[in-house]
Give the backbone structure.
Amino acid sequence: MKSRLPILIAIVAAAVVAVAAVGVVFATRGEDPPQLHAVPYQTPLESPATRGRDSLGQPVSVPRDGRPAVVTFLFSHCPTVCPLVGSEIAAALDLLPAATQKDVDVVAISVDPRGDTRPAVTAFLEKHRLTGRMRYLVGTRAELEPLWRAWSIEAQPDDADATQSMHTARVVLIDRKGRQLGSYPGGVPIKAQDLADDIAALVAAK
């Protein structure tokens, strides 16, 4: 057994050196994604090209070349998860410098076409201090269904009670290359500082 010990030590040492070398290569190339508080994806996922109109009728596109993004899925009459997510995102943005806030796209995609009318969305954004800080993409069910499928989201059923949240809740973090790096489950409280740190890391990464 003693004769094998030096060999085992040498193998472990070689493995450590190899891992370190790989890390140096990725760091040199700038390919390492930033460390996030969010649940990381084992392999970054390409974000689906998402286009539509917001509650003001203005065009929305995410991801946009060279811009990180935060994407979530909401409905304005949601009694539980959505108000929490909206407040958490607003609190995280409050912790960031104005320049950092301007360098990230924050987009919500409606999961309730029937209920997310212009007045309802306007009221939701105002209540959660997200007016001018979040783009809220709306549309008909036919327009939004392809987006839900692309993002692997279950939306509110047409016959759902407005007092029940029955959709997939998630806050997705996207880097400048349009890759999904990780996400927060919407039903679990998100620390504002953690989300703020994640956004800052996405903005700082090149």
